[in-house]
Structures are given as C-alpha cells and as structure tokens.
Amino acid sequence: MNISQKQANDQLSKNAARITDQDIEEVIGRADEIKGKFVDGGPLKRFIRDAQLMVSLVQDYWKGSYREIPWWALAAVCAALLYVLSPIDLIPDLLPVIGLLDDAMVVGACLVLVEQQLADYEAWKHRR
After folding, report:
1. Where are the domains of the chain?
2. Greatest CA span in the chain, whole angstroms?
3. Predicted model pTM
C-alpha cells in the first residue's frame, strides 16, 4: 500500500477542520504516549525533536502562556499528533514499520504547513 503526499495533506486538512478544545486536552493528556510513538516508531523517529516541540506548543497554548499562533496552525498540529495516536488510519499501525509510514507522511505534511509558526514558537521559548 502506498500513501501519497496529497493523501497525507487531505487527511491532515480534514482532521484539522474538526479540532476542538477536547482534542487539545487529549493531546496534552496523552503527551507521553505521543512522544513514545516517535521514539519507538521507525519512520517517525526522525521527527522526535519536532514532535516534542509540537507537544510543547500545544501545552503552552492551552496554559495561555503562548497565543501567538493562528488557530489553523494549532489545529493542524493537534490533528497530526492525534493521527499518530489513532490505530485506525490509512495504513494500520499493526503492520510493522510500514504501518507508520502514513503517520510520518501526515506529520511531515504538518511540519511543512506550520514551519514558520514552529520556528516562531521555538524562538519565543529560547527568549524565555
């Protein structure tokens, strides 16, 4: 099974459009589980640093300490992180290594989409 960048972008856009406060709380509550998926996850391993930054961004947004991000960018980050947690996606995670390829594509699509917002957030964190 092969996933295209267009499929990853479409999945990310669809999921981001439905993000709620409850989804943000889920990302925060399952932050360790999300980070674990990247550490243990073959194709996701290359995104460890980015995933940690994304989780931190969501946490700081929720606490109210960082609000300099447009909703669409926050929603895309949440959607990508929740997609990684979901066992039901384009390629089932139960398939060794290949099951995480779609997760990596969605995270990669998100990183391209919110690259500037993550850079701005990271700069803000370093100034604190």
Report:
1. 5-127
2. 45
3. 0.80
